[in-house]
Amino acid sequence: MSIVSVNSRAGIQTAIAAASRKTGIDFNYLLGQAQVESGMRANARAATSSATGLYQFIEQSWLGVIKDHGAEHGLGWAADSIRQTASGRYVVSDPAARRAILDMRSDPGTAALMAAEHASDNKAVLEDRLGRPATGTDLYMAHFLGQGGAAKFLGAMESSPDRTGAAMFPAAARANRSIFYASNGQPRTLSEIYARFAGKLDQGAAAVGATGLASDAFDDLSKGIDALGAGMGDGEVVLGNNAVDSDRHWIETTLAQLKTSRSGANQLAASDPFAPVTVNPFRPTPETARLAYLMLAKLGA
After folding, report:
1. I need a labelling partner for 60 at 20 to 30 A (CA). Which of 53, 99, 199, 250 fits?
2. For the segment 218-264, what is each residue's pLDDT rounded down to a tens digit?
3. What angle do CA 151, 125, 221 make, to 5 degrees?
4. pTM for this predicted structure
């Protein structure tokens, strides 16, 4: 019997799928993020920062997410070892424990779980600050710039899309010159940076076998539910030979949420400054993707 290494491509995808199931964060988003960040390499290390692992967590971001979510995933010892100072910095007094915690960034299972939890936290904060659903690209911006930086970036982009990113984020630009500057040295605008990240996420997901944007399934899903509704009883959905206790209101409510989310995305796309880009930078949010997957599961797909 062959054993698949957890650090092989198949092992890494399995770890990402498990993290997606546990947290509800879209698998395709997590897959694309891992490809963009590290080329799906669990031991990847950045040359210009402390970023390490599948999702290129810097030390402070990793300690923060372990502190907040480690105990939920059997890492209570690690969470308890981390203390946050009055200045907001995360510290670990025991050098051996600190090294062990930071080394977990190179474990695909732990890295994927923490990336998913981090995305969930970022989603909640961004939606509160922006007053709209967070897209997958928004979540990636929060991973790249932090919650405050992403909120600042996205807010400025909404009002001034042609503003240069390097002027707003000089430290990030110094560490990531290829993102903030074109090959000829011209500084990229906020809209150009965002569009490039959107394209990279979709291309990254496609490169490692993702099935495409979850929005592709919305129309078929709506048609299937409409057809199902005609023959559905008040308390039961019949799926082949299986009679499953159901709530018609659950299906109608979930579909309404999907349609509302898609309507909002379409309104955003209508004013999209990145229209020339061939990919859709306003990809479905992890939450709407999760709703789609839950609906498919409910329908026995």
Report:
1. 199
2. 333 344 434 434 433 333 333 333 333 333 443 344 344 444 444 44
3. 105
4. 0.63
DSSP letter string, 101-155: HHHGGG-HHHHHHHHHHHHHHHHHHHHHHHSSPPPHHHHHHHHHHHHHHHHHHHH
CB 29 within 8 A of CB 211: no
97's tokens? 């424990």
Tokens of 288: 């709407």
User: Alpha carbon of 106 to those of 55, 78, 109: distances in Å?
Assistant: 9, 15, 9
Establish whether 72 is a catalytic residue.
no
Class of domain 9-207: mainly alpha
Catalytic residue among 37, 117, 192, 287: 37
Instruction: Answer whether 153's CB lies under 8 Å from 190's CB.
Output: yes
Nearest to 237 by CA among 253, 290, 227: 227
